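Extended Data, panel c. Modelled sequence:
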Amino acid sequence: MNKETIFTKTTETKIIQSFKPNVRQYWLTFAILAFSIFLAFRVFGISTIVGLSIVSVSGLIIIYMILSVFTTKYVITNQGILFRKGPFSGKFREMSYCDINNITIKQGSMQKRFKIGSLTIHTGSGGHVIKGIRNPYQIKELMNKEKVSEYERRTLLRKIL
């Protein structure tokens, strides 16, 4: 089986691009947690219950954030977008191009410096946010291009049938 092709019951799905979020999106949270760990060592000491609590909670949050970034994956196919978010999600969820109404980009000043951004995919039932991806404008353009291609395929199929 070709690793760039997923076979389904009805048609063949081709993977256009897959990507993961960037850990740089959490720079402020990492800075705050690092400061709290420094504060725990400096002010309270590691031998006190307060210092130990701050260090352990901060450490757990950092580990969870890193795990969630490295276990999140997005896949753009010719039929839709597949996504798996976080360390506790086992299966990919699918969003068809038919369901997508609009895609918007949000990019703060630090995100522009890191060349990352967030995409919000608006559907009829709400929205889905893809945070911390590199080159969000290129990803949005690719999604719109695939959405148009899928629409043209469906229109052509309807005309044939």
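The radius of gyration is 21 Å. This feature is highlighted in the accompanying rendering.
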